[in-house]
Amino acid sequence: MAFLLNSRISQWLVLSLVLIYLSDSVRGDVRYSIPEELDLGGFVGNIATDLGLNVKQLRVRRFRMVTENKKEYLAVNLKTGILFIKEKIDREQLCEQGLTCVLILEAVMESPFKIYRIEVEILDINDNAPAFQRSEVDLEILELTPVGTTFPLQSARDPDAGTNSVRSYQLSPNEHFTLKSYSDSETTGIPELLLERPLDREQQPTHRLTLTAFDGGNPEKFGTAQIMITVLDVNDNAPVCEQNIYQITTAENVPKDTLIVKVTAVDIDEGQNGEVIYSFSDHTPEKVREVFSLDSTNGEIRVTGRVDFEEADNYQMSVQAKDRGPYAVAVYCKVLLMVTDVNDNYPQIITSYTSSTIPEDASPNTAVAALRVTDRDSGNTDVDCSIPRDIPFKLNSSSNKYYTLVIHGDIDREKVSDYNITVTCTDTGSPPLSTNKNIRVQVSDINDNAPGFTQPSFTMYVTENNVIGASIGSVSAFDLDSNQNAKLTYSILQSLVHGLPASTLVSINSENGVLFAHHSFDYEQLETFQVHVQVKDAGSPPLSSNAIVNLIIVDQNDNAPVIVSPLPNKGSAAEDTIPRSADSGYFLTKVIATDADSGENAELSYQLREPTDESLFTVAGETGEIWTIRRFKHKDSLRQSIVILVRDNGTPSLSSTLTFTVSVQDDTTENANNIGMLRTSGPWKYDLKFYLMVAFGSSSFVLLVVIIILVIKVQGDRNEMNNYCCCWNSSYLARKDSLHDIQKASVHLQMPPNYTDAYDSETLPQQYRYEVCPDPAMNDFMFLKLHDSVAPMINIKNGSCITAEHGKSSQSTRKDTPGFHEVRGMLTLKS
Fold first, then answer.
1. Rounded Cα distance, 780 and 102, in Å
2. Element (DSSP H or E) covering residue 8
3. Is residue 782's pLDDT more than 50?
4. Fewest beta carbons less than 10 Å away: which of 241, 261, 299, 412?
5. What is the rounded distance in angstroms from the CA atom of residue 740 to the CA atom of residue 673?
6. Which residues have C-beta within 8 Å of that of residue 193, sequence separation ≥ 6?
């Protein structure tokens, strides 16, 4: 025993030091050979040196081992590159009794990505002794059994492989039996008991023998079984198998209860001695009994389990045939069942490496995933894998069924943010089988899209006299990027608005784009202006876009009408004279007012508020012209006081009043000072233009004489008239509707052509200067002159007079105010 123990230790040391590896120059694969049952931490090899890798790069490049087994038998020390035993390896448990046992590993490296194939062959050691299924076997042999008859015995089993498995049997010495063993290509050796000398039950009814099985290991191991032989009497004919060996072929996955073979044995005896019963012999493996059943009466072998080629490609069965007579002798028929493969296994896709997120600017051929494809079927191992063609990826194949999924095209997260790639692998079987595997790849964002406003320009309306700090509107923008690259910030670009920085007028909320007023706007000073708004994302580098915001100031009715003509005389009421002979329809004067507001807020209406005699005067509501309604009577007062109310159309309405005093004077030439006789009917009942035209036709001669006289008088008293003139200036008086009102009421007012053209233009309101000069010596007509000569002007908001120089300086500060236009006209009276 000491010799055997020493031999075993020597063999262990030798096998532990054996290391054989084969290097593949193309793939860099390595093959090792190690004995089983090595202790934990046992040295396998220096994988870094064998693969030509730098040990310092193992951890940096995330070197790791990948295996299909549930247990990790081997591991790598990343500091030294040594491959060592992580869990004890039992070859018999890992590969059963296969001739070769190879543990396949994959070594994965990243940056750049590479896979190595590592094969570790597990060498068998003689760590198992042969063993019999039963430690004691009972045999019954007729005493008349002829010499040379053989009796099969149970075979011993040894989990070891190769030379370490069962190699020989030995029978204890006796007078009647010897041991006969043989081997063939279909089965392992089965010991048979050979009868050397005839048996005599009367001399020796029983025989006890010892059967010893030896393996071929070094040191050699063995196992024993006791054979108890009982010598029987009579029944001297045993059953005979029609075939000693049945060779059958069947396909895998055959249905249950399928008949595989029928074993037949014949016994020439009669009665119970000739009735044969069948059963599996003792040395039939348990796996066979789980898959097949044997009918004891007819010898039919049927399928009761699942026949799987991938689990076992052949089955060996030993059928025992024995008659029912006393002292029956059993015979054995061998059944060899070969299983053929069918394409019943789908390809298996194993993911060795995946990158769940890639940047959208990733370069072509960037590895996304690495796959390995296997197929358990034989003959159907050729597998073809593919992915959809409408995605920017492709599948590169390599040897040993390795595939790499790489980028093949442009990746744009704004178009597709993630891909669910389906890899389809199909084998070459009939029918072919396919397996799908989904690989999800998310695309990470880069700042490749500039933010953009929802529209190129924005228009916002702000009512004048607004509250400082109030919201006046908002701008909105969008960014196709995501996360930080889509976080937007708004700001106002530096620019000048009428000489002031735009940021002093408005501000913007940097987060939501809401604009706020920093100034209370006055429509009369500023009607509209522009600011430039910028939106910028938070990417690296940041991207931006600009937009224009047009701010329009909306007018409010915050200016009352200002009466500019006639002006009060020495701070009191305005005065004028009228001849007593003035008939109804006599034009007294025209009240002219202006309003600094615009639109409806500047539409003015005139009304008579406090006349001395309501039946004597009237005023045109649109033009402000004052007319007589009837002739003066002797009972009428010689001094009439008229209060004119001027009201705008705003909400609320604002108004101004003018007190006008009219003095009645006696005049012998009444008809010469009439602007027109309208008979007894007032101008409020008839068309004034019609009657004036009639007057023109009937009194053309008188008109000519009056014009000559008036021109001479005007030229003589021009200097005197200038002393009573007052000029005023307005920025917003010249409106088309005002012109139409003047023309409607004052049919005798002669306007030059360029005066009308100035109103017809669609430009902003022009500034005009009006000079009204009443002549005390000529109180029966009015002379109206519009010009741009140097003269005092009236502030349109408060009615106060200002010098021409002041008006010029104010004009120079308003760059957007058009130049003055000179309009000259004369109002004449027709008799």
1. 133
2. helix 2-17
3. no
4. 412
5. 26
6. 139, 150, 151, 152, 153, 171, 177, 179, 180, 209, 227
Q: What is the pLDDT of residue 509?
A: 92
Q: What is the CATH number of domain 562-827?
A: 2.60.40.60
Name the CATH superfamily housing domain 136-340: Cadherins (2.60.40.60)
Whole-number Å distance between alpha carbons of 737 and 323: 137
Residue 34 has pLDDT above 80, yes or no: yes
- pLDDT tens, position by position, 634-654: 887 888 888 888 988 888 888
Alpha-carbon span 12 to 658, nearest angstrom: 132
Domain range summary for the chain, segments of one domain joined by +: 2-123, 136-340, 348-444, 452-554, 562-827
Quote the CA–CA distance of 221 and 807 in Å, as a whole number.
131
If phi > 0 it is left, if psi is from -120 to 50 it is alpha, else beta; for residue 360 that is alpha
Report which of 513, 506, 507, 517 is spatially closest to residue 455, judged by C-alpha positions.
513
Tokens at 69, concatenated: 């087994």
- Under a CB-based contact definition with an 8 Å cutoff, are residues 318 and 284 in contact? yes
The type of residue at 459 is T
- Distances, alpha carbon 340 to alpha carbons 97, 264, 304, in Å: 21, 25, 18
What one-letter code names the amino acid at 701? F
Q: Is the pLDDT of residue 397 over 60?
A: yes
pLDDT confidence tier of residue 773, bands split at 50, 70 and 90 = very low
Q: What is the side-by-side order of every strand in the sheet holding 639-648?
A: 574-579, 655-665, 639-648, 604-608
CATH superfamily, region 452-554 = Cadherins (2.60.40.60)
C-alpha to C-alpha distance for 536 and 723, rounded to whole angstroms: 66
**602, 605, 632: which is closest to 617 by C-alpha?**
632
Of 671, 450, 440, the residue nearest 547 (C-alpha): 450
CATH code for 2-123?
A: 2.60.40.60
